[in-house]
Amino acid sequence: MLSLQEIAAQVAGYDANALPVAQAQEFIARLVPRVEGVEMLALRASLGRVLAQGIVSPFDVPAHDNSAMDGYALRGSELAADATTRFTRAGTGLAGQPFAGAVAPGECLRITTGALMPAGLDTVVPQEFVTVDGDAVLVPAGVVRTGDNRRLAGEDLAAGSAALAAGRVISPADLGLIASLGVPEVPVRRRLRVAFFSTGDELRSIGEALPAGCVYDSNRYTLWGMLQRLGVELLDMGVVRDDPAALEAAFRQAAEVADAVITSGGVSVGEADYTKRIMAELGEVLFWRIAMRPGRPMAIGRIESNGHSAILFGLPGNPVAVMVTFYAFVRDALRAMSGTAALPLPMLRAASSAPIRKKPGRTEYQRGIVRRGEDGQWQVAITGAQGSGILRSMSVANGLVVLDHEQGNVAAGETVDVLPFDGLV
Ligand code: AMP
Ligand code: MG
Predict the structure, then answer these.
(1) Which pLDDT score, from 0 to 100, does residue 341 have?
(2) Topology of 4-37+191-337 in CATH?
C-alpha cells in the first residue's frame, strides 16, 4: 500500500494548497482500494448491485433459427424473381410447438413469431403479403429476399461468449438477459459500508431546540440521500460534538466498521475545533485546498483503529459544498471501491442565457436551470445567489453548470457544460 506522499508524487502538478479538481480526482482514484467479498444473490435481488464475475452464455441465444414474423417459412431459392410463386402448405409450426414433419421442395410452413424454423427453410414471408387458396400459398414477386424475417441461432449471444462483464451495475435489461440464459443466481460484490457524521458545535438535530447561533444539521440528510441512491450500506453516526474524546471515539468506530467515512465540517484552514487534529492523529490525512468553488477545503486519507482502516473523506461544512464535493470526488471513489467500472457523468452542452463571471484557475459549479429552448437547443440560467450555504439553490436548480479550470468569463449565448441532476444520486 502506497503512502499518501507516494501517491502525491505520482500525480503530476500536485499542490495540496491549490489543487486542481482533476488532480484531486486522480489522487483519490489512486488512493481508494476495491473492497473484496462476493455474495450469491437470487436474480431479482441483484438489481443495482455490482456484478462480481462476468456471465458467459451457456448456450446459443436464441437456441435455434426461428421466425421473426407471423407468416410462411420457405426456401428463398425457390422464389421466382418476377412472377408469383406457388407453394403447398405442409403444416403449421407454432412458438413452443415445432412442426414435427419434413417440408419438401415446393412446400412451405405456416409459422408464428418465435417458432422454430425447420431444417432447409431460410426465409419467412409475412402473412399480409400472401394469398391463401386452400392448401396453396401464393407469394408475389419481390416481397422478400432469402434470409428475411429469420432470426439465426446465436445471433443474440453465441454459446461461450461473454454476456455481461464483471463490474457492471446490474440493470433491468441485465436481469432479463441473465434470465434468458436460465441463470437463477448471480455473484455480486458485497455492499460498501459507509459511515458518516456531522461535526460542529453549532449543529442541532431535528427535534432539538434551536438556540441563537445554532443551525439544524442538514448535511446528514443530503448525504443520506446521495448515499442511499448510490446503493451503499449506511451507518448514520449523528452529530459529533467538538470534543476530542467524542471525535476520537466516532472516528475509531467508523474505521472499525466501515470501508469509508464521510464527515462534514471542521476542515477549513482557520478552523479552531478538534476535528482536523483527531483525523491526523488516527491515520494519514492530507488537508487540501482545492481550486474549486464551492468546496475549497477537504481532508482526504486513511484512518485506522484496532487494525481496521477506512478511507476518510472530510468534506467542508457548507451545505452546497458538501453536495458538490460529493459529486466531484466521493461518488466516483465509492463506485470504484464497490468494484464498479468507471462511468463518467453525462454532461449537456447548453447556451448560457446571461453572462457569467468566472476566474480562470479554479473549477466552478454554479446551480442552473436547464431547459430546451424553442429552437430545440439546451439553454441554462444560473439560479440567483450562489453562496455555498444556500442549499435552496440546489433544490431550485435542475443541474450544475460546470465551468472548468481554465475557463474565464462566459458571454451570453456561449455554450457551457451542464451536469443534469436527473439521473444523479
Ligand atoms: P465549517 O466547514 O465547519 O467551517 O462550516 C461551514 C459552514 O457550514 C458553517 O456556517 C456551518 O455552520 C455550516 N455547517 C457545517 N456543518 C453543517 C451541517 N451538518 N448542516 C448544516 N450546516 C452546516
Ligand atoms: Mg465548523
Answers:
(1) 81
(2) Molybdenum Cofactor Biosythetic Enzyme; Chain A (3.40.980)
Number of helices (H) and strands (E), helices first, in the chain? 9, 26
38-61+170-189 CATH choice from 3.40.50.2020, 3.90.105.10, 1.10.10.60, 3.30.565.10: 3.90.105.10
Residue nearest ligand 1's atom 7 by CA: 318
Mutation probe of ligand 1 site: the residue of 197, 203, 279 with most atoms within 8 A of C-beta: 203
Ligand 1 pocket member 294 (CB < 6 A)? no
Question: What is the value of pTM for the model shown?
Answer: 0.90
Span 66-151 CATH architecture: Beta Complex (2.170)
Residue carrying C-alpha cell 394469398? 131
The reply to whether ligand 1 has any atom less than 6 angstroms from the CB of 268 is yes
Q: How confident is the model at residue 269 (pLDDT cuts 50, 70, 90)?
A: confident
The type of residue at 183 is: V
pLDDT in tens, 183-228: 999 999 999 999 999 999 999 999 999 999 999 999 999 999 999 9
Atom of ligand 1 nearest to the CA of 218: 20
Q: What whole-number distance in Å separates Cα of residue 186 and Cα of residue 373?
A: 45
Q: Where are the domains of the chain?
A: 4-37+191-337, 38-61+170-189, 66-151, 348-420
Please state, in angstroms and rounded to a whole number, the distance separating the CA atoms of residues 363 and 72: 63
Report H helices in 189-237: 219-230
AA letter at 146: T
CATH 1.10.540.10 corresponds to the domain 348-420:
no
Q: Is residue 136 within 8 Å of residue 86, measured between CB atoms? A: yes
314 lines ligand 1 (CB under 6 A): no
Residue entry with cell 448471480: 186
The residue whose CA is least distant from atom 17 of ligand 1 is 317
- Is the minimum distance from the CB of 200 to ligand 1 under 6 angstroms? yes
Cα-to-centroid distance, 191 and ligand 1 (Å) = 29
